[in-house]
């Protein structure tokens, strides 16, 4: 089990962030204002872009000791020695990923329902993503929205650290924490916001407030 | 330098082939009828599909001693222990790829002009793709077509084995061989043809005829 602080998990979207340079700057600001882990997710980008982006993010995040997680592309994670990877149900299976990355990198897996939650290989995966918890415009191929009753059931059933994802913004994070999730993941609630520093601080404040 | 017989290089397109199962069968038929190397290229597919497809292709091609080359996704090549990888100018750079795959896997690199040809790192790359040599409808983001005069110049300048690609079909392969290329790569000239066995045999015959 590789530990990861899921409290405020920023998933970077290069389009929402306004391109590579702005995305890296958003990551830096978020890391300085409460983001505890940052994922790069860019399904429409080619690998050379990915490499440049991941290297630039690592240069900014390593000194701040914020782990960089690479979505889907294990080759990019290996190339830049990222802290970990995150895969979905249509990506490489956890057993294959774990073989490629070795025992000491963080491995996250997306789940959308009780069946997928029950199928998670607990010895291989470090944390699960659970969502979408709210409607989202960011991920076009997202699964059906999980209602709050079902989300609470999933939180009672889970045995791994979990981060909620999908349409979470200021004002909607607290109920998820109350339901038992370890952290919340956001995309548009920070990426592309006029004041990403304030957005990150307010989200962190809401999460820590709901925990106490 | 990892040797590879580029004579008749089939690039599989799952859509043109009619899906995964038909694609694997096309690969088998092509391998039995003259294809010397086979690449899987599927930019629109998710990684779990890639894994399944690459494993199925390896199961068919390994007994026939036909190398399987994986386009772009080094993680898939590592996961299935493919014979090699092929990357384009927007994919991971050869130096990064070579570090990930080690010294004993085939590494191919696409080039489209004299500048790219001159920039190929000769100690890292095993062969180059050169194209498009003819107009093609298969690769929507292809570079401008290389005229035959320029292609012949590139062939005189090259110092690595080269395979021509782009719109090659029966009747248009011979001039490329005459110009000095080591082999030809085809997609639609085999994938989705009514008789892929005959198509492969005829292409091979044209290539070997032009060599003599």
Q: Brief overview, please?
A:
Chain A has 212 residues and is α/β, with parallel strands linked by helices. In chain A, 39% of the residues lie in helices and 16% in strands.
Layout: helices, strands, pairs:
2 copies of one chain form a homodimer.
Chain A (H helix, E strand, L loop, with lengths): L7 E5 L1 H4 L2 H13 L4 E4 L6 H15 L6 E4 L2 H7 L3 E4 L6 H8 L4 E6 L2 H5 L8 E4 L17 H10 L4 E3 L9 H5 L4 E4 L9 H16 L1
Parallel strand pairs in A: 1-2, 1-8, 2-3, 3-4, 4-5, 5-6, 6-7, 7-8
Helix pairs in contact in A: 2-3, 2-9, 3-4
Keywords (chains A, B): Magnesium, Metal-binding, Thiamine biosynthesis, Transferase
Pfam families (chains A, B): TMP-TENI
InterPro entries (chains A, B): Aldolase_TIM (IPR013785), ThiamineP_synth_sf (IPR036206), ThiamineP_synth_TenI (IPR022998), TMP_synthase (IPR034291)
Written description of the protein model:
The structure is a homodimer of 212-residue chains. With 212 residues, chain A is of the alpha/beta class. The two termini of chain A are 26 Å apart. Chain A is built from nine helices and eight strands. The first copy, chain A, has a single domain (8-211), classed as TIM Barrel. An eight-stranded parallel beta barrel of chain A has the order 1-2-3-4-5-6-7-8, surrounded by six helices. In chain A, helix 3 (47-61) packs across helix 4 (74-80). The longest helix of chain A is centred in the C-terminal third of the chain and has 16 residues, at 196-211. The A-B interface holds A 46-49, 51, 72-76, 78-79, 87, 89-93, 96, 99-100 and B 46-49, 51, 72-76, 78-79, 87, 89-93, 96, 99-100.
